[in-house]
Amino acid sequence: MSVNTLFVMGRCLIALLFVMSAIGKASNWTGTLQLMKAHNIPLPKLGLAGSLIVEMAGAACLVFSVYLWPAVIVLSAYVLLVTLFIHVTDAARNQGRQQAIPAILSNIAIVGGLLLVLAVRGAPAS
């Protein structure tokens, strides 16, 4: 397989993660709002709507390879903020620590994958 084909597949798989996350949040709007309120997220309704926009728009940018730099920067910042405000907070409070640590590590890996999108973007197709 060519580098270009692998790059497209990788971007689509990362995008799928964000699409599924957005669908999960939208289909459980009330539960997600309660989670955000429990973690003292300011303006939870606006934050939830914003997260859906970030996830869906970011996924579209990844799939169609448009605005990759801004999309990766925004998605990475979003993932890091979610990690900090939800998962690190849970781990620090020792609430659901066994679920928080793997979530923190997987989110770090997601950011790594997003950064690879930027690195490979300039790679010539084979």
Low-confidence runs of at least 5 consecutive residues:
none
Q: What integer value in Å does the Rg equal? A: 16 Å
Q: Provide the domain count.
A: 1
Strand content: under 5%
The total beta strand count reads 0
Describe this structure in words.
The protein is an all-alpha fold and 126 residues long. The protein has one domain (3-121). Helix content is 85%, strand content 0%. The protein contains five helices and no strands. It has helices at 3-27, 29-38, 44-64, 68-93, 97-121. Helix 3 (44-64) packs across helix 4 and helix 4 packs antiparallel against helix 5 (97-121). It starts with a helix and ends in a 5-residue tail after the last helix.
List the helices and strands and how they pair.
Elements: H1 3-27, H2 29-38, H3 44-64, H4 68-93, H5 97-121
Helix pairs in contact: 1-3, 1-5, 3-4, 4-5
Summarize this structure as a short list of keywords or feature phrases:
mainly alpha; single chain; 126 residues; 85% helix
Briefly characterize the structure:
The protein has 126 residues and is mainly alpha-helical.
